[in-house]
Specification:
about 220 residues, alpha/beta, Methyltransferase, Methionine Synthase (B12-binding Domains), Chain A, domain 1, Rossmann fold, 5 strands, about 55% helix, globular
């Protein structure tokens, strides 16, 4: 698996979409499911690229090319039919100040695999804008991604604001920070946190089997 991650990372940095699609195809033929591919190949590759950038071993341009290449791959390979209107809705965004959104894009794919109707707002979303969208669209769940400790205050503010207005909404939090630290205030706010996409997949599977949102069954 490590060799595959290395090859995947090399192809992303080179902007070689053809090689990436071949790597994905060979993995699927080897019976590696989508969630394992997300978690064991794409995610480590993303982290590796981030580490290289932090150590100045690649340029900003290299990182931007890698991001654009991976987004193209996601849009090309991981396609789903649009969720039915009577399926539960999930709003996904990165907290303000968080500019790395690829992990959340993968989470969006997990939601869609479970036939959720999703709205993906992307990175660096101000709290007030997220609240406006929640009030207008009325999602059943909100997924928030955070990767930096410097944005913890904003995360807490965002959760408190959502809870004050929408007490019954499911709030889900993930990201690189969550996979590294245990945040006590999340439990106090009745927030579910996820260390990886496999945990998210299991959680959504349980919800689909046992929960009904406002009379809607996923």
């Amino acid at each position: 698996m490590n060799q595959l991650v290395q090859a995947f990372t090399k192809s992303i940095l080179a902007g070689d979409v053809h090689s990436l699609m071949e790597l994905h195809s060979s993995s699927i033929h080897s019976k590696v499911d989508h969630f394992t591919f997300y978690e064991k190949i794409i995610k480590p590759s993303m982290y590796r690229i981030g580490d290289l950038w932090e150590k100045n071993q690649i340029t900003v341009a290299d990182e931007h090319l890698a991001t654009a290449t991976l987004k193209y791959l996601l849009a090309t390979v991981f396609t789903h039919q649009q969720a039915f209107e009577n399926h539960p809705k999930a709003l996904l965004f990165c907290i303000e100040g968080e500019h790395h959104s690829l992990g959340l894009e993968l989470a969006n794919e997990v939601f869609k695999e479970k036939q959720w109707n999703t709205r993906y707002l992307g990175s660096n979303v101000p709290v007030k804008d997220a609240l406006s969208f929640i009030s207008a669209w009325e999602p059943h769940a909100v997924g928030i991604s955070i990767g930096m400790t410097t944005e913890l205050t904003r995360l807490k503010e965002c959760i408190d604001e959502i809870r004050a207005r929408h007490q019954e909404i499911e709030i889900l939090v993930g990201g690189r920070l969550i996979s590294t630290y245990s945040l006590d205030f999340l439990d106090k706010s009745k927030v579910t946190s996820f260390h990886d996409l496999l945990e998210l997949n299991e959680y959504l599977t349980d919800m689909s089997g046992g929960l009904v949102f406002k009379g809607l069954t996923p």
